[in-house]
Every structure is written in structure tokens, then in C-alpha cells.
Amino acid sequence: MKIALAFSPLNSAFLFAAGAAAVLGTLMQQMLPASRAVGVSAPAIQISEARLVPGTEGLLRQTAAHLSKMQRGASVGGFPGFEPPDDDETYRRRIKEQHFTAQDVNDWVKEINNFLKQIIKKNLRMSLEEILQKQGLTPSQIENLLDALRDTEMTARGMQNYGVTTETATTLRTLMETLGVAPWLY
Predict the structure, then answer these.
(1) Per-residue pLDDT tens for 7-62?
(2) Which among 132, 156, 155, 154 is positioned nearest to 145, based on CA atoms?
(3) What is the reported pTM?
(4) Which residues contact 109 (CB under 8 A, 6 or more apart)?
(5) Which of 23, 24, 76, 146 lies in disulfide reach of 64, CB 3.0 to 4.6 Å?
């Protein structure tokens, strides 16, 4: 069986252009430093995680876990929800039924403050929303985490006369403002 190729001027021009593009693409890949080469097939989430400052993901997980305590242990921002130890039924009931004390809130908010301070230090001049985008969270997960943070700040503010220190509540509000998170207005 013989295959005949017709080399018309149009076919020749197309083959030449395709060959030139292939050669040019190969040359460009060889000329680019390895640190700048990004494969087209790389998922967007891997690219965004690659630019996240080391240690930030763990701080975000810890922040979400503490926020989860005040959300009945529910998942916050796509991070796993808080699970009290199986052997501490009282603590488990406190979380699930939201029967925590002002001292619990004070302690949890202090921890959240510590994590947020470290996040700010690692990610200078970035909003929390930008950080969460780099983490690869969806818009609804970002909104969920920001709302949980706002709820926590409002709870801490509301419990100031009952055991949450003014310093703890004020620090949280200041950190939120630094991260570009507006607190609830009511």
C-alpha cells in the first residue's frame, strides 16, 4: 500500500510552522531556569500551595481547630473540625452543646491570637483572605473561616464582663483588622 503525500504550498507552510513552533518551544524550555519552569499540567492548588510561606498551613489548621471549638466542633474553612478526646465526656459535651465558660473562650481566643500573630509575622502585608487563597481554599471555605473568626470575636467581646479579659478581646480585634477582616458591626 502506497501513501502519497501532497505537498501543496499551504501544507508545506503549515508543516514548517508546526516544526518551527516545536523547535522554539524546546529551546525556550532549555533556556528557562528550572525554578521558573511550571508544567501546564500542574493543578492550580499545587501552584498556590508552593507559594505559601512554610509553617503557615499548620498555623491555619490550628486556628481553624480553635475556631471549631466555638462552632460545636464543626469543620471550619474546610479544615477538620475539633474532636475532643474520647475519654473526656464532659469536655466533649461542653463543645457539642456549647456550654463553655468565659474562661474557656478566653483561653481559646488567646491561642487564636498567638496563631494569628505568627501568621502575620510570616506573611507580611497580606490579608487573611489572600493567605487562604494561597492555601487553596474555595471562596465558600474562605468565607466560612472568616465568619467563624468574626463570630469568635463577637463572642469574646460579649463575654468581656464575664471572664474574657479586655486585652484578649481587643487583641483579637486588632489582629483581625491587621489581616483585613472586618468584625461584625452588631
Answers:
(1) 444 444 433 444 444 433 433 344 334 433 333 333 444 434 447 789 999 999 99
(2) 132
(3) 0.71
(4) 152, 156, 164, 168, 169, 172
(5) 76
Angle of CA points 60, 62, 65, to nearest 5°: 110
Task: Write the pLDDT tens digit of every residue in 153-185.
Answer: 999 999 998 999 999 999 999 999 999 999 998
Spatial distance between the Cα atoms of 118 and 60, rounded to a whole number of angstroms: 10
Buried b (16+ CB within 10 A) or exposed e, 107-139: bbbbebbbbbebbbeebeebebbebbbbbbbee
Amino acid at 108: W
Taking the C-alpha atoms of 46, 50, 56 and 62 in order, what is their torsion angle to the nearest 10 degrees?
20
